[in-house]
Amino acid sequence: MVVVESDLLPPDPSVVVIPLLSDYPAVRQLNPEIEHDGRRYILATRLIAAVRRRSLRRTGNAAAQADEITRAMDVLMAGV
Hints:
Elements: E1 2-3, E2 14-18, E3 20-21, E4 33-36, E5 39-43, E6 49-52, H1 66-78
Antiparallel strand pairs: 1-2, 2-6, 3-5, 4-5
């Protein structure tokens, strides 16, 4: 999962995430590829959800792909 919620928001028990799936039907600009640990995953943007923060364990950083992730969320929310 990729946490997409801003660190500037007040702390909450839940956090907004987008799952990373190895086998997901990709739509251009909605589902960018994310590399983690030498493997490629598809950002399943339509499956955006909130999960309990305590259930997450940090295993990497997708900051280098922040523009693609933001663009995918823009496509999901505004169609642009």
